[in-house]
Specification:
The protein is mainly β. It folds into three domains: 195 residues, Cupredoxins -  blue copper proteins (Immunoglobulin-like), CATH 2.60.40.420; 155 residues, Immunoglobulin-like (Sandwich); 199 residues, Immunoglobulin-like (Sandwich). It has eight helices and 34 strands. The strands form eight sheets. A six-stranded mixed sheet has the order 12-11-14-19-16-17, with no helix packed on it. Strands 23-22-25-30-27-28 form a six-stranded mixed sheet, with no helix packed on it. Strand 16 and strand 17 form a beta hairpin. It is globular and about 65 Å long. The N terminus and C terminus are likely disordered. The structure holds 2-acetamido-2-deoxy-beta-D-glucopyranose (12 copies) and copper (II) ion. The site of one 2-acetamido-2-deoxy-beta-D-glucopyranose has 6 residues, from loops. GO terms for molecular function: copper ion binding; oxidoreductase activity.
Length: 617
């Protein structure tokens, strides 16, 4: 992950800024220089000594290159779909992309997917206060298992002291191809993906079971995190796992201090272990030993709440690279505990927020009852509805612009109706959306229930758009009065998160029995079409996704209208570039004073605008 060097080099070669007003349509021809480029391919690729298989990669690797942005700036990231037979989108996990409504990377929600052999320029505005640890991943099918990479937003002013930061990127590896997994998950009866074959740490993994079962000609080496004695490191843990709820600890280093969760700084919180679900991120301060007894210590990571335990290792390496490659230990050095339900639910924000709504301000509580239907095709339902991107025939945002009656390309997706939703537990059954008006204060309670056959599962729930205040989790059902009293007793606000765990409090219960909740509170401030979904990729494919529409029609469509928006409205439309076609793209943010980054044009090149000519300078 050294690519950031090149990325910075690219930024410093830019000599020339073109003046672009917010909402202006610009042609991104050869003279336009994006701030970063990601190229997505599919290749026969081997990870952790398993046989090579069809794998979706970013810039030829998994994880893909690290992107490093700075808060308070706007960036253009060009994403190429170099695959021949698959669609692609890129989601900027944890960032709030309210400024550029088509850039959230959700297929059939905020945009048409990028067709094969096309590219799409994502406009990414990172407001002040968003510094922290994020990642990017495809939002199509099972691609995110491998088509993903770290995204760090640097601070202008870091509130904690440390010597260096290091990324610890966690992924899963399955022995089946994505296509086989996807097909099985929607088959009747269900054909499960299989368990995680290997948890990968920074792209490498080695598990004891793998080695004993293993191929003698292949020695799986472990990832090394190089450190020096007596220094403090900020370890940025990124839970990019498809399925694994990971529990991890370091041999010989049991003082970890959590300082950031999902892009928000927290009061320091000491712990000896970390639990991290798919979609979650934490920064942890670790101070190395002044006089280490040996040169390498294992980090041990295991899955929890699955029928079997997947176990992997990485190495905390003191000093120079070892003469021999780091290998699996013969026996696991640590005995990791069982999961802790409610882990880090008590984190306190570093600074209290003036925006945190009191319970008196809550205008609506929506309970999202999740249930697994097992008879027939196995699907996950929210308030009795499943959602996958095969449900809408047109992306919601596109449908909003087109209006059903105004086009022949948009059959059957009318405007989301708040009235229909209010009469149906918050979900409009026609569009399968959860509409809300700006200014509402929502309390979203995610309620776990026993499946048709009684089973219970855990789910890392992730919200796109604005972050929520995480009110915590518990057994049974949510009691708002008791929860308020509990927060009042703690004397601090709940943490801001974008992904939090819905736990299970038993492995099974009665069909439909409510057992286990997670509650969020948020102000509806960000206009847009946002997803809320379980981040387990298998569950997403099985329907565990919802779509939320914030703002009314005027607010949603008022920012940029016809004809500027037209290129976004067709699959492979004008904003999708290819070899022979320079896309015409709306600059939602523009680059007014104080926001000077945001793509650039090479010196001496004329900037061609669709309207208004080429303002350069
Ligand atoms: C990805 O690869 C392309 C060339 O294939 C390169 O131009 C680009 O800088 C790389 N991106 C990053 C973030 O390293
Ligand atoms: C992928 O590579 C493996 C060997 O590493 C080979 O056996 C297999 O045929 C390859 N698959 C394809 C589709 O090329
Ligand atoms: C790509 O997306 C378009 C539009 O949603 C769809 O019609 C097409 O079938 C998709 N192609 C593939 C290969 O999935
Ligand atoms: C794997 O490790 C064993 C024992 O350390 C060694 O003898 C063997 O040569 C290694 N094989 C490869 C392919 O590196
Ligand atoms: C947390 O850990 C740090 C570093 O080990 C230590 O200095 C601090 O006193 C601990 N705080 C608490 C509340 O235990
Ligand atoms: C974890 O929980 C199981 C079942 O409740 C129990 O048998 C086991 O001893 C526990 N392990 C640890 C390390 O606490
Ligand atoms: C899941 O959604 C599809 C439409 O996308 C629908 O046809 C199907 O009936 C739904 N399944 C259940 C169990 O509701
Ligand atoms: C969309 O179409 C409906 C039905 O014709 C109409 O009532 C509504 O005003 C239209 N909305 C917009 C924003 O054009
Ligand atoms: C309907 O579509 C046309 C272009 O096809 C556009 O000019 C017109 O403004 C659209 N009307 C509405 C109400 O969106
Ligand atoms: C579980 O409960 C639902 C709703 O009451 C019912 O439709 C379904 O048939 C039940 N499933 C089983 C396996 O009993
Ligand atoms: C909710 O909690 C409050 C305060 O602890 C308690 O008085 C009340 O009975 C609880 N409500 C329910 C429905 O359990
Ligand atoms: C959760 O509540 C149920 C029902 O009261 C109980 O059977 C179960 O043991 C509880 N789970 C835990 C972990 O406390
Ligand atoms: Cu789930």
């Amino acid at each position: 992950m050294r690519s950031s060097t090149y990325f910075f080099y690219l930024l410093t070669t830019i000599r020339f800024w073109a003046r672009v007003n917010a909402g202006e349509l610009c042609t991104h021809d050869d003279s336009f220089i994006p701030d970063a480029v990601l190229r997505v391919t599919a290749a026969n690729y081997s990870q952790s000594c398993y046989p090579a298989k069809h794998t979706v990669l970013v810039n030829g690797t998994s994880p893909g290159p690290e992107l490093r942005l700075t808060e308070g700036e706007t960036y253009w990231i060009r994403v190429y779909n170099d695959m021949l037979d698959a669609n692609l989108t890129m989601h900027w996990h944890g960032l709030s992309l309210a400024v550029s409504p088509f850039a959230d990377g959700t297929p059939l929600v905020s945009q048409w997917p990028i067709p094969p052999a096309h590219f799409f320029d994502y406009e990414i505005n990172v407001p002040h206060g968003m510094a922290g640890t994020y990642f990017y991943h495809s939002h199509v099918g099972f691609q995110a298992v491998s088509a993903t990479g770290p995204l760090i937003v640097d601070d202008l002013d870091i509130p904690y002291e440390y010597d260096e930061d290091k990324i610890i990127f966690l992924q899963d590896m399955f022995t089946k191809d994505d296509a086989v997994i996807e097909k099985g998950l929607v088959a009747d009866p269900l054909v499960w993906s299989g368990q995680t074959a290997m948890i990968l740490v920074n792209g490498k993994g080695g598990g004891i079971s793998h080695v004993t079962a293993g191929d003698a000609t292949c020695n799986s080496t472990l990832s090394m995190v190089s450190v020096e004695p007596g220094k403090t490191y900020r370890l940025r843990f990124i839970g990019a796992t498809a399925l694994t709820f990971a529990l991890l600890a370091f041999e010989g280093h049991d003082s970890l201090t959590v300082i950031e969760a999902d892009g928000s700084y927290t009061q320091p919180y000491n712990t000896s272990i970390l639990q991290i679900g798919g979609g979650q991120r934490y920064s942890v301060l670790l101070t190395t030993k002044a006089a280490p007894e040996k040169s390498s210590y294992f980090m041990q990571v295991e899955s929890r709440d699955r029928p079997s335990v997947a176990r992997s290792f990485a190495v905390l390496q003191y000093g120079l690279k070892p003469a021999t490659k780091p290998m699996n230990p013969l026996t696991a050095p640590l005995t990791l505990p069982n999961i802790t339900r409610g882990f880090l639910d008590d984190l306190a924000p570093l600074h209290p927020s003036r925006d945190f709504p009191t319970s008196a301000e809550v205008t609506r509580r929506i309970t999202l009852t999740v249930h697994q239907k097992v008879s027939g095709q196995t699907v996950w339902l929210q308030n009795a509805y499943n959602w996958t991107d095969s449900f809408p025939q047109t992306p919601y945002l596109v449908a909003l612009y087109e209006n059903t009656t105004n086009t022949t390309t948009n059959p059957g997706l009318p405007y989301p109706s708040l009235e229909r939703a209010l009469a149906n537990n918050g979900i409009d059954p026609v569009t399968r959306t959860f509409p809300a008006r700006l200014g509402e204060v929502l309390e979203i309670v995610i309620q776990n229930t026993g499946a048709d056959k009684g089973g219970l599962d855990i789910h890392p729930f992730h919200a796109h758009g604005a972050h929520f205040w995480d009110l915590g989790s518990g057994n049974g059902t949510f009691n708002g009065t008791a929860n308020d009293a509990s927060w009042a007793a703690r004397g601090h606000q709940p943490p801001l998160r974008d992904t939090s765990m819905l736990y299970r409090y038993a492995t099974s219960t009665g069909n439909g029995t409510a057992m286990g909740w997670r509650a969020w509170r948020l102000r509806v401030t960000q206009v847009g079409v946002w997803m809320v979904h379980c981040h387990i990729l298998q569950h997403m494919i099985m329907g565990m996704q919802t779509v939320w529409v914030f703002g009314d029609e005027e607010e949603l469509l008022g920012r940029v209208g016809w004809p500027e928006v037209e290129g976004y409205l067709a699959f492979g439309g004008d904003v999708y570039g290819k070899e022979t076609h320079a896309p015409r793209v709306v600059h939602f943010k523009g680059n007014e004073r104080g926001n000077e980054r945001g793509g650039a044009w090479a010196e001496g090149q004329r900037v061609s605008f669709w309207r208004g000519g080429g303002g350069v300078g």
